[in-house]
Write a structure and sequence with these properties.
alpha+beta; Rossmann fold; BirA Bifunctional Protein, domain 2; 3 domains; binds glycyl-adenosine-5'-phosphate; 7-stranded mixed sheet
């Protein structure tokens, strides 16, 4: 049997910036994201992920791991605990420096982070919302979340939930070096939770108190720092470019000396433009020898590296690429969401133009009628077979148009319809989400056709 025709995925038009409320509403309605503890009134800055959200998150994580670890001979992965010895956070500089400075408006009582205010508002102590007077001396808040180990009052040890996930990488650096066959230059990668007592959480997943980060810490000889910094900077920018429709909404921005984090000597942010303006998506930080030197000093362990060939002994320098899983999730939803007007004046089509690699459901299997036994059993067997390779949804409820719409709204890239012709010639209709084009394909070719399009490469 031959394939009737082949159509490439349609490119997505430039669409207006999407209000955050649209994706908040869709996320809850369709099971991507829920407010945490909602039946108790919720907790600001903390969210849970629903059935579709967890699939999409796993896809995003797996694509990161695949490209950063599996595809780099010189990168290995770890998974560290979210609680560490409290001295870690003194050594890292977070106890001293991980702070937000806040001023209050005396009139409207709103609270602002000084680094979020325009210079003129800061200089004139003028509220950007009501024009009232701002307090002059900023109040300082540390973002680390405290916790206690032990049960006996008086013997309990105060420590912190990790404020940045990457600290485990420096703590495990020496163990990785001794237990695997890595040599400098090499990287350690990790995906994991971080916690921050953000004073101004908000904008849905953008600024949360519990969130997930992916980090690569790449250890190099100081003389090779420039080369590797440029390599990872470009690699990470291209990584994001691959996933988005609106490539012109991605850019680099270099940090000014007044905004560098305490551990960074230089930093570029990969920024993405949404209704919130240009905002950080990932930071590429020149951490130099800050972390290993500080942990050497505070722990008393010598963390210098000895080159096996030259025997040179030196403290490695570090390139860090650090991004947010949740911020990626949010940006991809904002990038993908569209309410497409219907040419016949009917209800607009809500569609998520998600890259097939990250879409939570890859294919929907739709028998044309649910009361025709042969259609249903063929459709069920196609669905059962595809489930071995990808997330497939079987749906026989409502007319075919309604079913397409349901799948478009959650970003399913392909719908497969089983109709009466299927029973005659063993072909099915494959409908593609963005262009809504349809082709006929033999059932025997369906799995490979879909795998080729939904698997990252
Ligand atoms: N280890 C370096 C580090 O933590 P960062 O710029 O503070 O650097 C890295 O965080 C990334 O983590 C950010 O680019 C952002 O994507 C994500 N992120 C940071 N704070 C966040 C928050 N409160 N909520 C959600 N994501 C956050």
């Amino acid at each position: 049997m031959t394939q009737v025709e082949h159509t490439e995925q349609a490119s997505v038009k430039d669409t207006p910036l999407v209000p955050i409320e649209k994706v908040v509403s869709l996320s809850k309605r369709r099971g991507f994201v829920y407010p945490n503890s909602e039946i108790y009134g919720g907790v600001a800055g903390i969210y849970d992920f629903g059935p579709l959200g967890v699939e999409m998150r796993n896809n995003i994580r797996r694509y990161w791991w695949w490209s950063m670890v599996q595809n780099h001979d010189n990168v290995v992965g770890i998974e560290g605990a979210t609680i560490t010895h409290p001295r870690v956070w003194e050594a890292s500089g977070h106890v001293e420096n991980f702070v937000d400075r806040l001023v209050d408006c005396k009139k409207c009582k709103r609270r602002f982070r000084t680094d979020h205010l325009e210079p003129e508002n800061l200089e004139q102590h003028k509220c950007p919302v009501c024009g009232g007077e701002l307090t002059t001396e900023p109040r300082v808040f540390n973002l680390l979340m405290e916790t206690y180990l032990g049960v006996v009052e008086g013997d309990r040890m105060k420590t912190y939930l990790r404020g940045e996930a990457c600290q485990n990488i420096y703590l495990d650096y020496d163990n990785v070096l001794k237990s695997s066959r890595v040599q400098i230059p090499f990287g350690i990668a990790q995906i994991g939770k971080a916690y921050r007592n953000e004073v101004t959480p908000g904008n849905f997943l953008f600024r949360q108190r519990e969130f997930e980060q992916w980090d690569l810490q790449f250890f190099v000889h100081p003389g090779e720092m420039d080369k590797w910094y440029e390599y990872w900077k470009e690699f990470r920018f291209n990584w994001y470019t691959n996933l988005i429709n609106h490539k012109d909404r991605l850019r680099f921005r270099e940090h000014g000396s007044d905004e560098l984090a305490h551990y960074a000597r230089k930093a570029y942010d990969v920024e993405y433009r949404t209704v919130l303006g240009w905002q950080e998506w990932e930071g590429i930080h020149w951490r130099q020898d800050w972390d290993l030197s500080r942990h050497s000093e505070y722990s008393g362990q010598d963390l210098r590296y000895t080159d096996p060939l030259t025997k040179e002994r030196y403290m490695p320098w570090i390139v860090e690429t650090s991004g947010g899983v949740d911020r990626t999730f949010l940006n991809l939803l904002l990038d993908a969401y569209e309410e497409e007007p219907d040419p016949n004046g009917k209800e607009p089509r809500t569609v998520l133009h998600l890259h097939p690699w990250v879409a939570p459901v890859k294919v929907a299997i739709l028998p044309l009628q649910k009361n025709k036994e042969e259609l249903v059993s063929t459709a069920r067997s196609i669905h059962k077979n595809l489930q071995r390779y990808m997330v497939s949804q079987y749906d026989d409820v409502a007319n075919i148009g309604r079913r397409y719409r349901r799948q478009d709204e959650i970003g399913t890239p392909f719908c497969v319809t089983i109709d009466f012709q299927t029973l005659d010639d063993q072909t099915v209709t494959v409908r593609e989400r963005d262009g809504m084009t349809q082709i006929r394909l033999p059932i025997s070719e369906l799995t490979m056709y879909l795998l080729d399009r939904v698997t990252w490469k």
